[in-house]
Amino acid sequence: MKILNRAIEVKAMIKSGDRSFQPFKGKSMAMVFAKPSMRTRVSFETGFFLLGGHAVYLGPDDIQMGKREETRDVARVLSGYNDIIMARVFAHQDILDLAKYAPVPVINGLTDYNHPCQIMADALTMIEHIGRIENTKVVYVGDGNNIVHSWLLLAAVIPFHFVCACPKGFEPDAKTVEIARSAGSKIEITNDPKEAVKGADVVYTDVWASMGQKEEAEYRKQVFQGFMVDEALMEMAGPKAFLMHCLPAERGVEVTDGAIEAPNSIVFPQAENRMHAQNAIMLHVLGA
Ligand code: CP
Ligand code: NVA
């Protein structure tokens, strides 16, 4: 909550046009991407710049972590030039190794296991639109993927009701479910999206085939029949339900065009909040 409150404060300053707060002046950030990105790249780069810093983008062909060079070497070399490292990788172990070997702070910009910066932005968006996270009902419909793991890890810190409606065989990691449950949040895993969404404050979805799984896309389209978030499902959720999606969306696959364009869709304020949430995360890890 401390980081989210800071995000609200710094967002207000940036939105007002005030650029006098330059805590990252003279600082540099390395951004390592093993996968594609729009939001994560632009929100980190622009956010760091708006607060005075300079960000260096390293795309999938630049470092080739683990292939051209060992992760532990990348960690120490980049730390020699930069005050902070942000990385988007495939294996979660890579981000753990970067953090272990880098003397500077390392921020997770998505792994196959989780996407914490996304969920911080989502939490900020819920506070702005619903007023709270505690005691809300968030229903995720789709693949039990990295986004779901981050929702569960949020539920391990803030108590709320989280439901994951996914096809059999696509459930989230059982250990992560247990972490959230044992912290006191109500967690349900179901195969029935229609029943699940009833009374939801948020209906959330994400692509059925994540980065690294695109060759399974056609197969998944068959298996995930009935899990598309459309206007009818949003109607079943009830009048207070907002639609959220981390984006990029495949309209006509996991979500309809109509659902994304509806008045209760908050996917674009949600995307903007990536930058504001991450600014607060960077301020936190740099002690600024
Ligand atoms: N939501 C998200 O992380 O988007 P990008 O893949 O474009 O960064
Ligand atoms: N689950 C998606 C999230 C994209 C932001 C992926 O990993 O591709």
UniProtKB/TrEMBL annotation:
Which keywords does UniProt give here? Amino-acid biosynthesis, Arginine biosynthesis, Chloroplast, Plastid, Transferase, Transit peptide
The cellular location(s) given in this protein's UniProt record come to: Plastid, Chloroplast
Could you confirm whether the keyword Amino-acid biosynthesis appears in this record? Answer: yes
- Could you tell me the Gene Ontology terms of the biological process aspect for this record? L-arginine biosynthetic process
Give Gene Ontology CC terms.
chloroplast
**Reactions catalysed according to its record:** carbamoyl phosphate + L-ornithine = L-citrulline + phosphate + H(+)
- Offer an example of a GO molecular function term for this protein: amino acid binding
**InterPro entries hit by this protein:** Asp/Orn_carbamoyltranf_P-bd (IPR006132), Asp/Orn_carbamoylTrfase (IPR006130), Asp/Orn_carbamoylTrfase_sf (IPR036901), Asp_carbamoyltransf_Asp/Orn-bd (IPR006131), Orn/put_carbamltrans (IPR002292)
Family statement drawn from the similarity comment of this UniProt entry:
Belongs to the aspartate/ornithine carbamoyltransferase superfamily. OTCase family.
The protein in question is named ornithine carbamoyltransferase
